[in-house]
Specification:
Elements: E1 2-6, H1 10-22, E2 26-30, H2 41-46, E3 54-57, E4 66-69, H3 71-82, H4 90-119, H5 126-149, H6 160-171, H7 184-194, H8 197-202, H9 206-218, H10 222-229
Parallel strand pairs: 1-2
Antiparallel strand pairs: 1-3, 3-4
Helix pairs in contact: 1-3, 1-6, 4-5, 4-6, 5-7
This protein binds glutathione.
Length: 240
């Protein structure tokens, strides 16, 4: 039994997909990041970095509970635990890890910043929005080049690298003005993964999670919203 702490975010969806793919039993606990739930001592005991997703696997190493944050580490842990979705041959295994790292280190942060500057930044942030949107377009091209050569990011097989990248690639093309018809290999890969029964199941509660996020965001106290985004009285360091 696994406790998953999350909201409707691509980093959480990738873990839900893995849990559905592997058939593990889990409970999803909603964290209201707009009400600063992630900064409580209770949550920081799970993740000192105050972000979702986090899992607590009650049947972890040696039968003892394991608590893990960082979605890439969670996918890697579950893949090793179940010997699933991580190839065993060294070449494919490292290829999978390389694409997983690209998602964690670059795709997630760049797509995330583009979304932030599009939806939450005050006016006058055109430079930032343009910089991150350009990065998003460039990264779709990187995916297109890879997926023109291989069925999946790690090679022939569907792996945790695809699970990590798919939620970002599938959800953010439209708002960034990326035309899928221009990147047919990415389009094929998005559609193939979307049709997987586990991915369909992973979306069963998604509309309710999205509705929860929209409602919490709309009713957020302005000070808590500033805290979430590290601005206003929460901004630190030299001012520009
Ligand atoms: N690299 C982390 C990123 C986690 C992350 O940024 N989570 C966001 C939701 S997508 C969050 O918890 N935001 C709350 C906050 O920043 O206070 C991962 O992949 O797990």
């Amino acid at each position: 039994m696994i406790d998953l702490y999350g909201i409707s975010s691509p980093n959480v969806l990738k873990v839900i997909i893995m849990l559905e793919e592997t058939g593990l039993t889990y409970d999803l606990h909603r964290i209201d990041i707009w009400a600063a739930d992630q900064f409580t001592d209770e949550f920081k005991a799970l993740n000192p970095n105050s972000k979702v997703p986090v899992i607590v696997d009650h049947d972890g190493l040696g039968g003892q509970p394991v608590t893990l944050f960082e979605s890439g580490a969670i996918l890697f842990y579950l893949a090793e635990k179940l010997q699933a979705f991580l190839p065993s041959t060294p070449q494919d295994r490292y290829a999978t890890m390389q694409w997983l790292m690209l998602q964690m280190g670059t795709i997630g942060p760049m797509f995330g910043q583009a979304t932030h500057f599009r939806s939450s930044a005050p006016a006058g942030q055109e430079y930032s929005l343009s910089r991150y949107t350009t990065e998003v377009h460039r990264l779709y091209d990187v995916l297109e080049a890879r997926l023109s050569q291989a069925d999946y990011l790690g090679g022939e097989d569907y792996t945790i690298a695809d699970m990590a990248t798919w939620p970002w690639a599938a959800m953010y093309h439209e708002q960034n003005g990326v035309e899928l018809s221009r990147i047919p290999a990415v389009k094929r890969w998005i559609e193939t993964i979307a049709a997987r029964p586990a991915v369909v199941r992973a979306h069963q509660d998604w509309p309710s999670l999205v509705a929860y996020a929209l409602e919490r965001r709309a009713s957020a106290d302005p000070d808590k919203r500033d805290r979430l985004h590290g601005r206003g009285r929460y901004a630190r360091g030299p001012r520009p």
